[in-house]
Amino acid sequence: MLKRNFIQGMAALLATTCAAWPAAAQTFPERPVRVVVPFAAGNTLDGALRQVAVDFQRSTGQPLIIDNKAGGGGIIAATTVAHAAPDGYTLLLSNTSMLAINPHTFAKLPYDADKSFKPVTGFLGASLVLAVNAANVPARTLSEFIAWARSNPPGGASYASFTAGNSSHFAGVILNKRAGLEMVHVPFNGTPPAVQNLVGGQVQAAFLPLLAVKPQVDSGKVRVLAVSTPKRSPLMPDVPTFREAGFADLTIYIWSGLSAPAGTPDVVIARLNTEFRKLLGNPELQQKWRELDFEALPMSPTEYRDFVQADSKRWAEAVQLSGFKASE
């Protein structure tokens, strides 16, 4: 009797809870929503999210609280959200590293990129560019650069990345493999020192965000040979894409998206997705972002999941080719 009453009580509680979620989703959010960001305040992606936060509060009546938890290649931020209550009030600004690269470079992670989160939507994408030192590299096209790099002895050409074990590192690995090059990878601790060493001639080339090298391009110190996005950048419309140059697998976004803890109800995910896709579709916001080489990437949860999985597959190959393993 007691067992039957317990089972009946639990079934009733479950039914009540399940029925309550759709109703709650109609009024969601009823308090501030926290977004955990894997960068320090002032980062360009952090700034882009703060722009959206203004419109989020205007639309929902609730603030979007930005919680910066930088460091660890995104592991600190990802772990925070993976362990948060699955109620839609804590989100993760997920990105390339934490969901598509870390699973292949770390032997063990405190979160599961596939199972610890539910996708909400894509957020934004930016391009990587292959930039060269204009004084030391005569090439003006990607094909000329490949010919120049091949003419050097093994290890005679080098490329910078903004950190080891990230997209700018592995983009060079892919180019080495596809073009038959032996460029040496030189990692730096962040984008500014990578740009500084490219301009100074300590490295001949670099894979870096377009916006990071544009001032040096404008001054004639750096030349950009190709951009990684599917379409040419409006900031450099004369520079071809890697796809145009015959390297389709270097079609790469430096991307970010929004994810929720696993177990977040689908109705809440749907409510969040609807809200963020509306905000990301704002033409005024999109124009502001184009000036920063940012492209809004609103997606359905399924589209974002598929996007991440496809990107993860690409980076798995690059990591294997490089032999790189991150330290624990």
Question: What does this protein structure show overall?
Answer:
With 328 residues, this protein is an alpha/beta fold. It has two domains: 31-125 and 254-322, D-Maltodextrin-Binding Protein, domain 2; 127-250, Periplasmic binding protein-like II (D-Maltodextrin-Binding Protein, domain 2, 3-Layer(aba) Sandwich). It has helices at 2-27, 44-60, 75-82, 96-105, 142-151, 167-179, 191-200, 210-218, 266-280, 283-290, 301-322, and strands at residues 33-37, 64-68, 90-95, 117-133, 158-161, 184-187, 205-209, 222-227, 253-261, 294-296. It starts with a helix and ends in a 6-residue tail after the last helix.
The overall average pLDDT, rounded, is 91
Number of domains: 2
In the CATH scheme, the class of the largest domain would be Alpha Beta
What does the radius of gyration come to?
22 Å
- CATH H-level superfamily of the largest domain: Bordetella uptake gene, domain 1
Q: Output the CATH topology of the largest domain.
A: D-Maltodextrin-Binding Protein, domain 2
Describe the sheet with the most strands.
10 strands, mixed
Cα distance spanning the termini: 53 Å
Helix content: 40-55%
CATH architectural arrangement of the largest domain: 3-Layer(aba) Sandwich
Structural class: alpha/beta
Which spans have pLDDT < 50 for at least 5 consecutive residues? none
What is the gist of this entry?
With 328 residues, the protein is of the alpha/beta class. The chain folds into two domains: 31-125 and 254-322, D-Maltodextrin-Binding Protein, domain 2; 127-250, 3-Layer(aba) Sandwich (D-Maltodextrin-Binding Protein, domain 2), CATH 3.40.190.
